[in-house]
Amino acid sequence: MSLFSGALIAACAVVAIAVIVALALPSGEEAGGSGAKAVSEPAQSASAEERSGAYVGAQQEAREHPTSAATVSFVAVGDNLPNETIGLYADKKAGDEDDGKYDYTSLFEHVKPYIEAADLAYIDQETHIGGNDIGPNGYPSFNTTDEMADAVVDAGFDFVASATNHSYDWGYFGALDHSLAIWEKQPVAFTGTAVTAEQYERIATQERNGIVFALLNYTYGVNDYTEDSLPEYAVNFIHKDRIAADVERARQVADVVLVAMHWGTENLMEADEEQVDLAQFLADLDVDVVLGSHPHVIGPMKWVSNSTGSGHRTLVAFSLGNFLADHDEPYDKNVLEGMLSCDFVRQEGSADVSVENVKWTPLVFHSNAERDEFSVYALDDYPADVAKKNRALTDKKDPVKWLADTTEKVVGQEWFE
């Protein structure tokens, strides 16, 4: 190749990437960030016109001629499901009780270093941020105050999924509209629920080190409502035809496709038949990683190979478990949680992105007998004396050992260093 040809290709790649960024950003906004992690504004979904012609051509050109090798580190956690006791805790942390102010940041302080250290981080926000007028509420109709969005961002999360069985708990009181308005102001890519057609069609994306990631999100259902009883666009439900179409659209704007699935059987530490079927369906679509939530316990993690001969394989975490959840009944397996971590790697001169260095980090949710101390710990950082005060583990002679042994049994030994 001549120097002129090499320069021309490099210049085309730079122009193509610039076109992508310009089209992905909302009008009048720029990518930005703060702290240890570079945070870009969530890209808006492309219009039908943008997804065709020059737009798609520019993206294909950028993928075919990547400028350099790249690695992006990634972490993912499960259900952020705070109830009224956690709301009361946040109220006290913010100052005077019942003053209408809440501070959730201390709940994440022990795991924040893990989240901030990653280039990209995902969380399933199971409750809607329905407003401080409704206030903190727990089962059966959950609501979380606005300050939780600030705490999630402060902890270092970039991708937020919201399609869950609690997505419309206070929806008819305006909670969904309020939640979308809150998340639209945050520097995250948010998906799963919507109040407009534009939000419903949007592909949530983030870019790191020249690699573009898309997040799709679906739920098996919504408590107390049928799908046809909800407003149009409100919640993304699991429908294979919809998912297949979304994955195809996501592939036009991203190098990596992540799919968050709110599925499975509560308190079952193994994949049920529907999860196995859907996991194979997603693998046959060449999805890169599946992030499972809903069962409130951890589940197995495995590679699922495409059955149609593409050679692709999909990493499936059937359930990451809870992340922040203080169940009224303190069951031991509900406080055992997980964090998936991996690297997305693109080699020099290649357009392909591989999933490498996959690891499962056991987490634990701590709640004392008085229910006035809450936090999430990595199991390696969980002090033995603190573990013995966890109200869900009081019957365990060695709580830390039980948590470690159960994780290895459920998830699989191959995912630990």
Summarize the structure.
The protein is an alpha/beta fold. It contains 11 helices and 14 strands. Strands 1, 2, 3, 4, 11, 12, 13 and 14 form an 8-stranded mixed sheet that branches.
Please explain how this structure is put together.
The chain has 417 residues and is of the alpha/beta class. The chain has 2 domains: 3-64, no CATH class; 70-415, Purple Acid Phosphatase, chain A, domain 2. It is 28% helix and 22% strand. It has 11 helices and 14 strands. The protein has helices spanning 3-24, 54-64, 84-93, 112-117, 147-155, 175-184, 197-201, 240-253, 273-284, 384-387, 399-411, and strands at 70-80, 120-125, 159-161, 189-191, 204-208, 211-219, 256-262, 289-293, 301-305, 313-317, 322-324, 336-346, 353-367, 374-378. Strand 3, helix 6 (175-184) and strand 4 form a beta-alpha-beta unit.
Task: Describe the secondary-structure layout.
Elements lengths: L2 H22 L29 H11 L5 E11 L3 H10 L18 H6 L2 E6 L21 H9 L3 E3 L13 H10 L4 E3 L5 H5 L2 E5 L2 E9 L20 H14 L2 E7 L10 H12 L4 E5 L7 E5 L7 E5 L4 E3 L11 E11 L6 E15 L6 E5 L5 H4 L11 H13 L6
Parallel strand pairs: 1-2, 1-11, 2-3, 3-4, 6-7, 7-8, 8-10
Antiparallel strand pairs: 1-12, 5-6, 9-10, 12-13, 13-14
Helix pairs in contact: 1-2
Q: Characterize the biggest β-sheet.
A: 8 strands, mixed
Number of strands: 14
Tell me, what is the CATH class of the largest domain?
Alpha Beta
**Main structural class:** alpha/beta
Give keywords:
417 residues, alpha/beta, Purple Acid Phosphatase, chain A, domain 2, 2 domains, six-stranded mixed sheet, 28% helix
